[in-house]
């Protein structure tokens, strides 16, 4: 990271950024080209480890790519605010972001319910009873994070 003054180093601070984001982009290796997907997600953070949970239809390009190579990179960002100074001709953006990499594991039918609860918890303050009838037509997978970094450009009083 070039701008060490913007690095978010503490695990719990990085997780707080992740909890604020509402989209996670994953990049997969599609025969040498990145295949990037914006996805809703849930996260489980325990003992300095993070798992990201995703869901989708039971078929699609991403599953074929994951089957061939389950490594993935991810990115999420939030708290965007445009800062301009017309007198100086200056423009910048405030933000918080997390990037990282890991590997994907497909979840079994027995693991789906708990993973979907993690996803729902990310977007709802209270427990949200979702329709279990959708589970047979839903594929759920997780990205086990092996490495991640956080970055923030915000007012000094608000950091991280």
Outline the secondary-structure elements.
Blueprint: E1 7-8, H1 11-20, E2 24-30, E3 33-39, E4 42-46, E5 49-57, H2 61-68, E6 71-85, E7 90-106, H3 109-123, E8 138-153
Antiparallel strand pairs: 1-8, 2-3, 2-6, 4-5, 5-8, 6-7, 7-8
What features would you describe in this structure?
With 160 residues, this protein is of the alpha+beta class. The protein has three helices and eight strands, in the order βαββββαββαβ. The protein has helices at residues 11-20, 61-68, 109-123; strands at 7-8, 24-30, 33-39, 42-46, 49-57, 71-85, 90-106, 138-153. A hairpin with a 4-residue loop joins strand 6 (71-85) and strand 7 (90-106). It is globular, with a radius of gyration of 17 Å.
- How many strands in all? 8
Largest sheet: 8 strands, antiparallel
Helix segment count? 3
Given helix and strand content, the structural type is alpha+beta
Helix content range: 10-25%
Rg measurement, Å:
17 Å
| Order of H and E elements | EHEEEEHEEHE
- Strand percent estimate: over 45%
């Amino acid at each position: 990271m070039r701008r060490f003054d913007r690095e978010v180093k503490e695990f719990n601070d990085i997780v707080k950024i992740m909890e604020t984001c509402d989209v996670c982009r994953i990049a997969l290796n599609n025969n040498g080209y990145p295949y990037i997907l914006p996805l809703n997600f849930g996260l489980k953070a325990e003992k300095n480890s993070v798992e990201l949970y995703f869901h989708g239809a039971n078929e699609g390009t991403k599953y074929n790519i994951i089957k061939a190579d389950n490594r993935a990179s991810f990115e999420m960002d939030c708290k965007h605010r445009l800062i301009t100074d017309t007198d100086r001709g200056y423009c910048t953006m405030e933000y918080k972001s997390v990037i990282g990499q890991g590997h994907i594991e497909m979840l079994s039918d027995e693991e789906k319910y708990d993973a979907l609860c993690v996803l729902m918890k990310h977007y709802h303050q209270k427990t949200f009873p979702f329709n279990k009838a959708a589970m047979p037509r839903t594929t759920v997978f997780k990205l086990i994070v092996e490495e991640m970094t956080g970055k923030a450009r915000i007012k000094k009083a608000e950091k991280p």
